[in-house]
């Protein structure tokens, strides 16, 4: 059973997410028809402030939840299965709310055949597409060891061993056929605001970040302080995808997911 302090913390977080302004005890009481007196609410606000969950910018102002409070709040509410997503609603709401969504289709393609064209170039035939790269003895031997290996694994290994042309050709295919970004502008604004390093920016914009992140909620380990990343394995237009939603902790993700889920 939720205790009084936790109930009030969740209430003020909900109110803050809805209004994005400091919330006073009187406002909170009237918004949710809370039976506790304003004095009781203020006492709990003080305790929550001492514990690092609420801040008060001015003595006469209301309280706002800290990033730590918002992290705990969303961490307990966003670990659900998202079976299928409405793409049109996803596109609309992400743009409207200032969120960036990274989508990567499940890459089941495997390398099936390597055709050597007179030691000049090679045609690499995957399950559903083909690419061409320059021939070299070392690369030819390397690729023969990659038969029946998935494209994601070949991408990772080619990057590790320095097979640059192969990595670039496969990355280009993934970027244009498997990977998509909704609201890139918002992510670029975030990158500038938080001065993200070039390596991190490229990992997001080229989709390589999608290869390693797992389903769940991510914070400072993936994004700048104050941001959240939510990863789901889901379906869009009956296609299996991995989806990463990135935005401020203060966004209303309950509203967002209600609007996109089928």
Structure description:
Helices cover 44% and strands 21% of the residues. The strands form three sheets. It has a five-stranded antiparallel β-sheet. A three-stranded antiparallel β-sheet has the order 4-5-6, covered by helices on one side. It folds into three domains: 4-65, Winged helix-like DNA-binding domain superfamily/Winged helix DNA-binding domain (Arc Repressor Mutant, subunit A), CATH 1.10.10; 80-106 and 178-260, Beta-Lactamase; 111-162, no CATH class. It is built from eleven helices and ten strands. Helix 7 (151-161) packs antiparallel against helix 8.
What is the chain-wise order of helices and strands? HHHEEHHEEEEHHHEHHEEEH
Strand order of the largest sheet: 7-3-10-9-8
Biggest β-sheet, characterized?
A: 5 strands, antiparallel
Shape-level CATH architecture of the largest domain: 2-Layer Sandwich
What would the average pLDDT be, to the nearest integer? 93
Ordered list of secondary-structure elements with their pairings:
Blueprint: H1 4-19, H2 25-32, H3 38-50, E1 54-55, E2 64-65, H4 67-75, H5 87-97, E3 100-105, E4 111-117, E5 121-126, E6 130-134, H6 137-144, H7 151-161, H8 164-177, E7 179-182, H9 184-193, H10 198-205, E8 216-218, E9 227-236, E10 239-248, H11 253-260
Antiparallel strand pairs: 1-2, 3-7, 3-10, 4-5, 5-6, 8-9, 9-10
Please provide a brief summary of the model:
The chain has 262 residues and is α+β, with helices and mostly antiparallel strands. The chain contains eleven helices and ten strands. A hairpin with an 8-residue loop joins strand 8 and strand 9.
